TrEMBL record:
It holds the Pfam family Acetyltransf_3. InterPro entries: Acyl_CoA_acyltransferase, GNAT_dom, N-acetyltransferase. Keywords: Transferase. SUPFAM superfamilies: Acyl-CoA N-acyltransferases (Nat). It comes from Streptomyces marianii. This is GNAT family N-acetyltransferase.
Amino acid sequence: MTELGPVAWPPAPIRTERLVLRESEAQDRAAFIELFASPKVRTYLGGPRPRDELEREVPELPGRRPGLFVIDLDGAMIGAITLDRRDAERPGHIRPDAGEAELGYMFLPGAWGCGYAAEACAAALGWFAGAFPGEPVVLCTQTANDRSTHLAAKLGFTEVERFEEWGAEQWFGVWSPVASSGLREIRPDQYGHPAPPVRPHVRPGSPARKPKRLGSLSNASIG
């Protein structure tokens, strides 16, 4: 997993009907820990990580890097979306030099079943279409993860292949900003518009720490 490449980051926060996609803040640390410690969220991601381990390892300002959006509902983090370059050594590619942009996502169980995932992912794809015109995006999730494959179809991902990885069958699909069926071009402004600046919340006296990279959100459990 590598970062997207040359792109202005962070973009202005993106507001959808109910959500804001923004850069991570110090106040999001507890939600990041919950995402990686939750058995429900981690069902298709190799299982939960020990909470005490996460408390030690997750920095005060987690997830602050190009390609990672925090999903904010009414001022609180409910999930995260990533857009990274897919590792060349992994199976599942649509171009010979690999390095495709790959969508990943995780949402807290309390946010499942409300359509937030589709709303947020559509906004992220809209941003990507503006930042990287004409470039497709891939997605990989376990075939058994019905919620995730349903979301992929809803977003317009088309199945390319299935393969075995990590002891399970994986579903691999691709999304294009211009649908092959001749549907209208997907524009960035379809899925959201810049929101007013979000003021960061930093605990007074918190020591500065170098952010650590959190794990990939691919193959995520989703609601």
